[in-house]
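ping. complex inputs:
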Amino acid sequence: MPDPMYRQIAEDLRQKIESGELGHGDQLPTELELREEYEASRNTIRDAVKWLIARGLVETRPGQGTFVMGEIEPYVTVLDFDTGFGQGAVYTSGTQATRKRKVPRASDPRIEIHQAAGNLAEELRLEEGTAVISRNQQRFIDDKPWSLQTSLYPMSFVARGAGELIQAKDIPGGVVRYLEDVLGIKQVGWRDKISVRPPDQTEALFFGLPDNGRVEVFEIRRIAFQDSGTPLRLTVTTFPADRNEFVVHVGRVPGEMPTPAGRVDESGP
Amino acid sequence: MPDPMYRQIAEDLRQKIESGELGHGDQLPTELELREEYEASRNTIRDAVKWLIARGLVETRPGQGTFVMGEIEPYVTVLDFDTGFGQGAVYTSGTQATRKRKVPRASDPRIEIHQAAGNLAEELRLEEGTAVISRNQQRFIDDKPWSLQTSLYPMSFVARGAGELIQAKDIPGGVVRYLEDVLGIKQVGWRDKISVRPPDQTEALFFGLPDNGRVEVFEIRRIAFQDSGTPLRLTVTTFPADRNEFVVHVGRVPGEMPTPAGRVDESGP
DNA sequence: GGGTATTTGTCCGTATGTATT
DNA sequence: AAATACATACGGACAAATACC
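pong. complex structure:
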C-alpha cells in the first residue's frame, strides 16, 4: 500500500470503481463531501482525483461534479482490408452477435503542395526537394470524428495525367483505383507502421480530446507500393487511442470477417 | 492562447523545448528559479510542470531537478513474421542505415491452469469451464524488459501427448513447432487485435513505468488457427507504448525487411 | 433572462517530508 | 552533516461553469 494520503484515497476510490460499487457514469461525492469523508484537505482530495483522471477512471465536469468514465465501444479497423476512402472494414467491438459494420464518411480533401524532405523523402524514395501532393481529409463514423488522414503522392503523377489529384474533392472509388484507371499504376501491397503518440493541437481539437493529455493517438503510416517496388503513396492516418482498435489477418483465418487472406484491395487508410 | 497562468508558463516552456532551446536531457530551471522568472507561486509553476509531464515532455527527479525527456529509439516488431520465442523480427527504429536487428530473450514460463470463461472461451471457441494452460513469460531485449506474454492452449493438447506444455521451461524452437512435431497440429494463420490501455500493476512494475499513469501499453491478442479453422492458441502480449512500434506487410512489399509476403512462420507474439 | 446555489478550476502562501548530491 | 530540489499536505480566496428556480 503506497503511503501518501492522496494515493490511499485514490486507491480506495479506485477499488469502489473497479468493484462496481460505483458504476459507469455514476457521480462521485463532491470534493467537499470527500474532504469530510477522508478528513483531508480539499487539495489532497483533488490530488487523489487527478490520479484517477490520469488513469482514465474518472472525469471531472466543472460546475457538475466528478464522474466514473463511461464505457467505450471501440471501433475496430481491419488493416489488411484496404477499402476506398469513405467505405471500409470498420466494426464496433463487442461480442460477435452485437458487432456492427460501420461506414466512414470523408470530408472533401484539403490539398497542399509540399517539398519532400527528411522522413517523407526517404519513405517515398524521392530526391529531397521533389514536389509532392498532400491530400488531407477528416473522416467520420456516424457523423462523429473518427480519424484524420493525409495522403502524399509524387507530383509527377499529375503531369502524367492524374489531374484529379490536385482537385479539392473526394475521388469516388478511391485514389488507388483512379491511379490504376488513368495511369495504369497498380498497388500491389503496402507496409503499415503503427505507433502511439500524444495528439497535436489539430488532432486534439478535431477529436475533442480532453486537454489533460491523457488520450493519445494511433498513428498509422502506410507506404503502398507499385508492381515495380516503387512507393506509390504515403498515407498517414491518426485515430484516438481510447476508442479504436486494429485487426490484422495473416495466413489463413476462418471467415467471420470479410477478409480472405492474402487478398489486396483498394485505397486507404 | 489559453488564459490560465500555469498554461501560459507551460506553453512557454514547451516552446523552448520544441524549438531545441532546451535539448533532450537538459535540466530546466528549478521550481524556485521559475517562480522568480515568471513571477508566480511555486504551486503554479508546479502545475505548469505537471502539464508538461502529462504530455511526456519533461520528467522530474526528486532531489535533482526537472529534465527534458530523453529521446527514445523505439523497437519495431514485425507482426506478420512469426518467429520462435526468444528470436524474432525486431528492429531498432531510425534510418535504414542505423537499423539493427535485435534478438529477444524469454524467461522460463510460469505455468497456470485456468478455466476458460467469457472472452477467453469465445476466442478459443471452447465451452465455458474447459481447462486451458496458461504459459506466462517475461521477454527481454539486451536484458532490458521488453514485453510480457501469456499464451493459452486447450488442456486437451496435453492429454493428446504434448506434455511439455505444462513444463515450466522454454520450449526451444517454439511451442508452435513443438505442437506440429508432436501432435501434427499445424498453424496456418492468425488474427491480431491491437489496442492500447493503461498498464496493470504487474506491467508497470516489470517495465519500470512511471506511476503517473502517462505511459500506456500496447496489448496484442493473437488468435492462431489450425488448418481446420479451429483456434490453436491465444497469445496476449503487452509492450510499453512509448518505446515500441509495429509493422505489418500486406501483399507484395519490396525487400529490406526479411518478410516475403504471404508467408507464415512459427510461434509468438 | 436573471439570480443564486453548487461544484470544480486557478492561484496564493506556508510548513514539513524525502530523495539526492 | 548540510544543502538542494522535488513531493506532500494544509489553509484560504476568488473565478468560472453549470444547474435550478
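The first helix of chain A runs from residue 5 to 18.
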